Structure of PAP2 superfamily protein:
Amino acid sequence: MRVRETARGWTAVWLVVLALVQAAAFLVVWRFALHTEVGQWLDTVALTGNRIGQERIDGPVDRILNAMSVVSLLVATAVIGFIALIRGRKALAVTATLLIAGANVSTQLLKYVLTRPDFGVDPERAAAGNSMPSGHTAIAASVAVALILVLPRKVRVLGAFLGVGYAAAAGVATLSAGWHRPSDAVAAFLVVGVWAALAGLVLLFFQRERAQVSSADSHRVAAAVLGISGGLAVVGCGLALSWLLDLRDVPAAELGRRPLFVAYTGSAAGIAGTMAMVAALVLAVVHRLVPRYKG
């Protein structure tokens, strides 16, 4: 089957652009966070800042992270596939399953392929090596994005906001628990974003001839809210981290409470903002990927 309609062709072009942009963003995050001394230092400062108020959030953080496992991922994937099947969307069920599987398998492969040079910035965790991307974050994000694809239009926006909230909370939780650096969570979201764009191309390829795309089914307001709020959060993260650069010659363990707090909260905003932007891109185009059927 070929993409014949002009509208479908432009959607395919848009998805390819999204995949390339998010892949490029992943490479930038990887290069800066792992292969520059200042990038490693910023990650370490943010991770060190998780000790501020940690005793108050240990309980919720543990519950969020302990809920994510191979079993829970399989259950969530089965539920998502079932939602698509009861809507009569076999291709959607298969594609959503492949999205989740592809995002999580590639996350684990990248974690072992990517290297993290030791610049002496974080001696306590030097032996652990690379931890990018975050597997727990990828689980939450892939399920959230797949949910946006399979849910009916009337509840899709609610599912999108709940999914973004949970995935963002999972990403921040890995930072709060000291399991992952903030760049690990951001990289995981970008991996899921690339797979979401690829899944969109698959859905376009198998789209039925009687599919009816209507602008009335779009979610422009919700996508704009997520995209703008996510963009502002990422900008806030950038401003917070740039403020810390004047202190980059100071070891993270010797910094005071204020810079540690700025690094931690700024990084948390960047994590949440990245997930919101990835979900906004999916929500903006999902009505073209999963349209109505005539009759």
Remarks:
- Strands lie at 211-212, 292-293.
- The chain has a mean pLDDT of 88.
